[in-house]
Design brief:
heterodimer, A: alpha/beta, Rossmann fold, 5 strands, about 40% helix, B: alpha+beta, Beta-Lactamase, Heat Shock Protein 90, 3 domains, five-stranded antiparallel β-sheet
Amino acid sequence: MTARRRILVVDDEPILVRLLVRMLGTAGHDVVGARDGHEALELASKDRFDLIISDVRMPVMDGPSFLAALRTRHTETPFIFLTGYGDHTDVELKRLGATAVYGKPIAPQELKAAVDAHARAAAT
Amino acid sequence: MPRSKDFRDLPSPPELIERLSRALDGARMGIWDWDLRDDSVRFDRRWCEQLGLDPASTPNRLETWSSRVHPDDLPHVLAAVRDHIEGRTSDYEHVYRIRHADGEWHHFLDRGRVSERDAAGQPVRVTGIDLDITRGEVHLQARLQQEQVLREFIALVPTPVALLDTQLRYVAASDVWVKALDLEGREYLGHDALALRPQAAPVFRDALHRALSGASLGSEEQRIDRPDGRERWMAWSVRPWRREGAITGVVMAAEDVTARVLRRREREEEIAASVGALALFAGGVSHEINTPLQALSVAGDLLERELAHPEPDRMQLRELTANVIEMTERASAITRALRMLARDARFDPEESVDVAAVLEHVEALHRTRFESSSVALLLINETNSTHARAHPSELLRMLMSLLENAFEAAQQRDRWVRLHALLEDGMIVFRVEDGGPGLAPEHVAQLGHPFFTTKPPGHGSGLGLHLVRTIAERSGGSLTFVAGAPNTMFELRVPAHEPACAPERAP
């Protein structure tokens, strides 16, 4: 049994957010969804997450802006990008402070393994 | 006294005759002596030999000569003789053709003078010499004729070429050259080519001089801008003109290839633009498809897990199945649009195109990208099911180009783009508007010029609108910028498909 983590999933496709929340939930994690960077930033400022999984292109506030805002608040939460585009290179995104970058679609098993690999060790 | 000195120096008569005789032989000269009283003529041995006649059997008659003179020349020769005999000229001299025994025409230079007069002072004898100048004359004529033929030939050459001598003066030029260099009606043969065209002098002076020392130079495409700054390209070559091994001038060819260069550059830009657009588009499309795929893969995982449960939650199953159906449809709409887009316009026939289907494709290809950039995309179809007559892939591409521009503009101010399809005068009008900041008046005039762009370097070649307009006009449509509209507005017109044109509703 993997450790239970607190995870924030951000994507502008509500169906995908719902499915990811449910899948990671069934894997034993505590998961919250957001539909853009702005909403995610609010959640992240109120709550402490062990991992953030975010889309890159989103309305209102995109993934990179969200990550940059997060890092300026000295929040070192591990951050995984799930991107469907090729317009940001992994290097660019990692320079912004991304922990890892995965291309959509990622296989469910791989995503679960990534969560285990990158999520902050449970504080308890 | 000089005269006595001259007199003393004269050789003795026999020696003089011998010397004169040798001189006449060497000079290919003949002597004739005409008695006007009975028209007898004494032709000397050399005269007869010049014409291949036997001196022994040549009749000493004027007809011997006159019957051999070219009939075209005879009246002129006789007139010249008469002028002299009648005292109008101090001596007689004429060039004429005369038939050799072998039938060839020879050229004679004839000179003579009255050598004896009667008591009344009337001329009774005329004596003269003739010189066979055939060789020189034939050469000269042949050369003149050759040069004339050459000049005429060069004039007819359909490319701009010119022949210059060692002083860089025109020897010949093709009509095309004369026209291209504005030399029509001007004296140019024998004139300095660089002086006639001072603006070209800096470019060609060095090359022409190097050609005179044996070098061949040229360029397929050299940029030589016009004085007004307009871009101009020349193809030119300069090489030595050799005659019998010696350089006697230069052959120069030059052609204005501006149109060709610009056309090719336009094609290259067009390709670069489409490759760039394709890369951008492929990125966009992969996102549009990858998101549904990600959802499908997660839904699959959840369905598997749920079904592994001894008592699957039917509500859960239904919801997941609905998600699968929706995501599959989303991805399918994109691949359907791609199928239309991927058709090669060159082989894609004009056909009746369902506007509603095209708008669906437009939406499928742009929806997510617009949404994820918070730009609202409004599609309004008021064409009453009228079809357009177009190449489907081209129509889709044109609309995508316009939407792409609108999308970029809208991100700079009000984030919305509206595509409104309507019917007007037998045309389908696609009106594309955006909430962007609008175009500066000075930019409006340049819209649609190839390569005009307001985007920073690296962001668009400016070919989009120009291409859209070219394609639209090719199919009987148009692209116009609607000046004075409250928002930036372009109208793309495409002919409506005839049978469905202007649907009249029964009263």
